[in-house]
Specification:
alpha/beta, 434 Repressor (Amino-terminal Domain), Rossmann fold, 6-stranded parallel sheet, 6-stranded mixed sheet, 12 helices, 44% helix, transcription regulation
Amino acid sequence: MAPRIKDVAEAAGVSVTTVSRVLSNNGPVRDSVRRRVLEVIEQLDYRPNAAAQRLRSGDTATIGLIVSDVRNPFFTEVSRAVEDAAYAQGMRVILCNTDENPEKEAMYLRLMESERVTGVIYSPTYEAARRFDARTYAFPVVMIDRAGPAGVTDAVTLDNRDAATRLAEHLVERGYKRCAGLFGNASTTGRERHAAFVEALQQHGVSAAAEFVDPHPEAAHARVTAWLAAESDERPDAIVASNGLLLLGAYRALREHGARMPDDVALAGFDNDAWTDLVTPGVTVIAQPVYEIGKNAMQLLTQRLAEPEMSTRTLVLPGELVVRGSTGA
């Protein structure tokens, strides 16, 4: 484990502030204390956080923003929020798109290191989030939409369990008995929403044909088409999709097969994308506070840069259930 500024302070018997003053050569420090701190730095092979130093010195900073799928309106809006907040603080943003590909993720994280960015805001795949080690990188990371193990990094997410539970209970209240769900297979978000959706339906004695699929419209279209081709008593009477792209694919399949919503099958999902209120009937969704997610991620990153040793924090924001005609409103 790489030594931290707190480790230097403890070994030298001084405060973190004193170590910071020695590193920046700014502020009163006795010569004997300065020598002791520098000796400990050499002994521990401590390497200061260059990104944080640049931010404190007023140098132009660069933020890396690594998103899963820039085609997804969710990440488009998040990117806008991050860029707005960064611009207001005189920072630049490098935007990278991974397509949920772990190899591209690793490549872009290496790029961030070579560019010596000030910090990174990042939506990781499930595997990357599960094994992420913040100590590997010289810059701080804030995760958005998905979070790694507790305490690893700062993060901003939706309250996925609450949102998926509310969707399930809404369908139960409307009287649907055979509910199906499509959940993205590449993220912690899809897994959290899947677990809560199935659990909530089971508590009401309602069957749940919940499946993991690639988080793209084509995958949802294919799966819904197969469901519609099943025998009538095996067909779902309500379908939920765990992101806006899956919801779009499901809607297209229903329209192409002439399925009436909600008479033949109800439809609901996540993300209040513009089209969901323009079609007839409108589609019931969980509206995420997308801009706030991006804005808060930037705030957490700025605070982390100012106080590198502070405890990690996860902000969990609520979603809003927007009920429309696709579920019988």
